[in-house]
Write a structure and sequence with these properties.
single chain; about 130 residues
């Protein structure tokens, strides 16, 4: 049997807690984690965490990007952004640079937003002379 490698589709690694499943524990991942069922515990990583409608998390979530379509009770830290979709419900603390709550999304708790540092580059007269 020949394997046609040119037709292989490159997919991003993905961890899924399927609908109808309850998982208790701790997830550490630098890839995408998708919660379709119920998760009790903490999720830590530098990837993306997505919760689907009808899913739930009881615990803390720390990731680069969080997309909340289900219910989360806990502390959320998004290094880049946290989006609460129109089906999402968050009870707890949110910390992120960017927070988006779509119409219909619910949030109850405390929120801390960080300002991104802006790097100022100074140009001296000698740099202006070289450009002229």
């Amino acid at each position: 049997m020949k394997i046609n490698r040119s037709k292989a589709i490159a997919q991003e690694p993905l961890t899924i807690i399927a609908a109808g499943t309850t998982f208790t524990g701790r997830i550490e991942s630098n890839q995408t984690v998708r919660i379709e069922g119920n998760f009790i515990g903490d999720i830590n990583g530098t990837g993306k965490v997505i919760t689907c409608p009808d899913s739930s998390i009881q615990g803390n979530v720390e990731a680069n990007e969080l997309i909340v379509g289900g219910n989360i009770k806990g502390e959320l830290s998004g290094f880049t952004s946290i989006t609460i979709q129109n089906t999402g419900v968050v009870e707890g603390t949110i910390q992120s640079d960017t927070i988006v709550i779509e119409k219909g999304g619910l949030f109850e708790g405390d929120c801390v937003m960080y300002r991104k540092e802006i790097e100022v580059i100074e140009m001296g007269p000698h740099l202006l002379e070289k450009q002229a």
